Amino acid sequence: MIECWNNRGFLYVVATPIGNLGDMSERAVEILRQVDCIAAEDTRHSAPLLHYFKITTPIVAYHEHNERIMTPILVERIIAGESIALISDAGTPLISDPGFHLVHAARERNIPVSPIPGASAIICALSVCGLPCDRFAFEGFLPAKETARRGHLESLREEKRTLIFYESPYRLQETLIDLATIFGGDRRAVLARELTKIHETFLYDTLDKLAHQVIMDSNQRRGESVLIVAGAPEIEAKEKAEVLAKKIFEVLQKELPASQAVALTAQITGVRKNFLYSQFIAE
Questions:
Q1: How far apart are CA 137 and CA 207, in angstroms?
Q2: In the chain, count of helices (H) and strands (E)?
Q3: Cα-based torsion angle of the residue sequence 127, 128, 130, 131 in order, rounded to the nearest 10 degrees
Q4: Per-residue pLDDT averaged across 235-243, rounded?
Q5: pLDDT tens-digit series, residues 135-194
Q6: How far is it, in rounded angstroms, from Cα 278 to Cα 283?
Q7: Could you write out the DSSP letters of every residue in 112-162?
Q8: In this structure, are residues 281 and 258 in contact, taking their beta carbons and an 8 Å threshold?
Q9: Mean pLDDT over residues 82-94, rounded?
Q10: d(C-alpha 152, C-alpha 68), whole Å
Q11: Distance in angstroms (rounded) separating the CA atoms of residues 250 and 228
């Protein structure tokens, strides 16, 4: 039975399958049957899912184009005692999907919000990618415009955590090319496509080779994809000091004799003078 709190209803954030209907939980089905209303990202998209599970609950549209208008309406309905379930087209709502404004508004009004967990493309792909998954950063969809996309990737080039992106079939090829160009073609990555569906595919290779496969095989540009990219490699402390020493020396030598520049660089960085002489003076 749906709960009630201080005569108010609940807001349930319900995860739905990302492909395979067998991933729908019994609890999710029961919640969707019992709430007063389902707020769906696309009512036409969700209708077959609800029909399959014999869910006849009234449904309203809640998407990026109407969420600011619908949010106060739904909040008032919950305050009046109704319980509402939020679903997206697939997976867990709010993760690159509408819902933030509703959840935020509910929290501001002290409305209880309860998660009904289930599938998430991020976690599905990460769990089988073979790349480090103890620390990761989810970046959602990259900007559609080339300049903005490349600028954002430049800001992530030195990120040490595993990076996760969503990408549409229309921009996958360009995104992989940009990733290879900016991160380096030998960076390891995984392309996870059509997760949990009949044509589920995982490609594990370098960014250069993944870009080549996608360019050569149009099938790899079908359906929604999750891109998982290895984080930037850790630079050893010694190597970091040497890189810093080179930068400092290049600045100092413009104003000082080489021997003085080396001496000051060694004093600042702790890198041995003999090494600096062999690297810079001998050049």
A1: 18
A2: 11, 10
A3: -40
A4: 73
A5: 999 999 999 999 999 999 999 998 999 999 999 999 999 999 999 999 999 999 999 999
A6: 8
A7: -EEEE----HHHHHHHHS-S--SSEEEEEEPPSSHHHHHHHHHHHTT--SE
A8: yes
A9: 96
A10: 27
A11: 37
